[in-house]
Amino acid sequence: MIAVCGVVTAVLTFLFPRTAAGPIAGPAEAARAVQAAPVERGFQRFSWLNAWADHHTAPGGAAADRLDGVPRMRIVVSHLRRTRSDFGVLAEVEAPQRSALASFGREFAVVATPDATDDVVFYRRSVFRLVSRETVTMYYRDGARVTAPVVVLEQRASGQRVGILPVHFPATLPSAPGQRRWRDLDARIVEAVVARAEVPMIVAGDFNQRNDILCDLTSPETGLISPLASHQDCATAARAPIDQAFFSAPLRPDRYQAHSGPSVRRATDHAAFYEARVRLSPSSGR
């Protein structure tokens, strides 16, 4: 068993949100889509999805015949606008996609790390302000060290704060067997970050696990909740997706949705984009 002690020491790496420039654009099908209704006062929409790292579809990539990363990010931005997302997590984001997000999504600020393939936090500038950002070391394929941002946002209207940790656990593949040990270590790191947090937390991203991580992170010891199922029902609940989000209980996530369709299939190799409604109010303090 790999010791967790000492792994979760956060490095204070201040990464300014990227500025945006250029036109706002999206595919015609997204422009014609009906936007989601505004969220009720006191509630915000949190979205998470796998953006499918640019190198997969770049020339020479394994899926070079698919849509390139930059136009795929246009689709993502159009989706975030259409669903009126306020903040969230994008897993598997590389430099061309980060630049595209800054260019096409001027209303969103992005917090990233220097890693080549990154899991980023985004937020709508008119709804949130950035309070702090740190980094925590996590582990990817075969124990490769990666950094994840630990972000604290403050809702402008209420002053309530929320923390966000984006994650991407390694998948066990024929070409990369035995990755469970690193997923288990990452789960322990998540638990440690949540335990020391002074604000309600959201942990979201690509876990490359299904009901097992659902049961793990909703355990009484961790104290997170899922919009998919309670800890009591996690083992027998419907098969969970590998892209999940977990919330501190005071955030009371509800109205979970999985968005699929032609645009999603063009933008990612995953089945859907996801969202839930959360409540940031005086009752959401820890």
TrEMBL record:
Pfam family, one: Exo_endo_phos
Keyword set, alphabetical order: Signal
Record keyword Cytoplasm present: no
InterPro entries assigned: Endo/exonu/phosph_ase_sf, Endo/exonuclease/phosphatase
Domain (Endonuclease/exonuclease/phosphatase): residue spans on this chain: 54-270
Signal peptide positions on this chain: 1-20
Top-level division of the source organism's lineage: Bacteria
Protein name: Endonuclease/exonuclease/phosphatase domain-containing protein
Organism: Nocardioides luteus
